[in-house]
Structure formats: C-alpha cells, structure tokens
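User: I'm writing a short report section on ligand binding and want a predicted complex to refer to. Could you take this sequence and pyridoxal-5'-phosphate and write out the structure as tokens? A short remark afterwards would be nice.
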Amino acid sequence: MKVYFDNAATTPLDPEVFETMRPIMLDMFGNPSSTHSHGREARTKIEHARRTVAELLNTSPSEIFFTSGGTEADNTAITCCVEAYDLKHIITTEIEHKAVLETSRKLENSGKVKVSYLELDDEGHINMDHLNELLKNNSRSMVSIMHANNEIGTLNDINAIGEMASQYDAIFHSDTVQTMGHFAHDTESLNCHFLVGSAHKFHGPKGVGFLRVCKSKKIGRFVEGGGQERNHRGGTENVHGIVGLAKALEIAYSEMNEHERYIRNLKDRMISGLKDRIPGVAFNGDIRDGYSLYTVLNVSFPPFEDNDMLLFNLDINGVSASGGSACNSGATMGSHVLNGIKADPDRQGIRFSFSKYNKPEEVDYVLDKLVEILQPAMV
Ligand code: PLP
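Assistant: Sure. The structure tokens for the complex follow:
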C-alpha cells in the first residue's frame, strides 16, 4: 500500500480542477494582454477567476493579486508594506514559514527595520501581552503572524491579533497558506490587511497563489515589467493556473464542513491509535479541536534507538510523511519550528498531514507499520 500523509507539503490535484484547466491549456492559449479575441478570451477567464476568489473571501476583486504562490505573496506583503509605509519594525515569531522569516531578516540586515520575535509557549501559542507591549513601545510596526503553523498545526487567533494591531494602527499580515481552503476566511469581519493563498495546498495546481491586499492599504509594483495585475506585477499571467486556483477554492468552500468533519475523524483515529499502541507517544503543538489545524498532526516519538531512521523506514513501507526541512543532500536538518517551541531534541518529531483523499484504512496501515518498525525498540 502507498500512503500519502504529507498534504501540508502539497495536495494532489482535484481531477475536476484539472478538467477545468485542460481547455485553457489546449485551446485558450491567447496572451491576456493581447487585444484580439484570443487575448480577450484569456483575460475574461482571469477576471472571472479573480471575481470567484474575491466572492469566496467576501472582498472585492480589486483586492486580489495573483502571484506565483504563497512565498511570493508573503515576500510581497512584507517588503511592499515596509516600503510603502516606511515601517521601522516587524513583529513576528520564530516559527513562521521561511517566506516570512527570511524576508524579515533581509530587511533587518539592510538596516530598514528592527525585527522582534514574540514569546511562545511550548505548544506554539503567542503571548498576547508581549504583543501588546511590543506594539505599545514601537510605532510604525507591521505584525506578521501565521494563521496555522505548517509543522505543528497550532492555530493563532487572528481575529484577536488583528484587533490588537488595529488599536495601535499597526499593519497586520497573516500567512494563511495552510488554512486557505480549509477555513472560511471572511475578510469583511477580519482585521487583517494582508492574507495569502497557495493553490497547491487545497488541491489546485502548483506555482500559483494570491495576495489579498485590503483596500485601505496600498502597495507599489512588486515585479517590474509589463502592466499586468493592474500595473503591480509584470509578467504574462499563468492563466490555466489562475483558473485552476479559483476552481479549487470554489470546491474547497463548497465542501468545507463535510471535509473538515471527515479529515478530523482521520486525525482523531490516528491520535487514539498512537496513544493505544505506542507507549510514551506525545504530540507537538496544540491538538485540541478549535486550537489546531485539522489537517496536521505532529507526533513526538519517545527516544527509541534508531528513531532518526523512522521517516526512512516509513518511506520504504510506502508511507510519505515529513520531518524537519530537507537540505540539498536529502538529509533532515532539524526543524526551526520544533526548536522554536523548545521540543525535546531526543524525541523524533514527524508530521502526518491529511486530505479529503485519505482513507481510515490508510491510518490503520500507518499505525501497523509504525508498531512494526518500533516494536524491537519498544520491548
Ligand atoms: N507559508 C506556509 C505556512 C507554507 O506552509 C508554505 C508552503 O509550504 C508557504 C508559505 C509557501 O507556499 P508556496 O509553496 O506556494 O510558495
């Protein structure tokens, strides 16, 4: 059996999304910037997709900018905001995605901003008092805090963070890559200026995403070149990708409650199976319903001998899951997120992440394989 439990890294393409993209790739190949009928046809598809995304997020199409994915959207939100508003300070956490961490560090190294990192508890929750203190003592701040952590799944209360940021007139960006398509974001009621999405995290194609910029905020050009994306991002648009993204988000919203229930059951089955069958097992991050991304489960295995081979052994048994980030040689380098919450370095942390395409039998298979692999060490 082959089991794919790495859906936080990327999800399989939904066949319905593929069927929506196919005629765009084969027949509607016109350049959307061309004024002839082939071009106009492609332009119409992009604007229709923009309207779909905007309606789902309860915002206006003029607030949606298509990008090459979540990384570009995060980079753009932070860099453009610091520039447009001459910001001097970024408040973030040490467990953000590298798209946020490296962008902030680069701006700090160039002398443009100071970066402050919020105190975290051992489940990855931020200290709201610390956020309040940092906002009080630093004007011209931007807050960049993810909605759900991609490695441990802990959710941040972005409503509360946004409210606090607005009390101090700070700009708020949330990396929503892991929750877009899995939670119903209503931008109207959310005090968040910048949200991001990446299609391949919700069964859409890779290499396409979007940035939502609240109409009260302005950003400059972020890719030099032609006048695409209303003169902000030069470059011929990824038409089929954009259409696929909109279709994938539409499907995600229409089936959200059903999928949440289904996937939560898979995760609960995995949690209870692990607790029953592997003595000493624990979990990284907050696993309570409502405090945790229902697609992600980060398991902390007791320090058995050969634990560092666990991912490899799962892989040879047909199970794809993930550990820390891989370096170029393929070896894992540890995880900045697990280090950030001061997880015990002697315990192996493995992320299992689920999607609507996974089955309860797959959970049972992975549990059996884990017991088989760990059995010699457990006796
Ligand atoms: N932010 C988070 C939280 C992510 O999990 C990812 C992808 O893993 C990204 C940003 C980057 O998204 P993309 O792969 O579309 O560049």
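A remark for your report: Residues 51 and 226 are 22 Å apart (CA to CA). The chain is about 40% helix and 15% strand.
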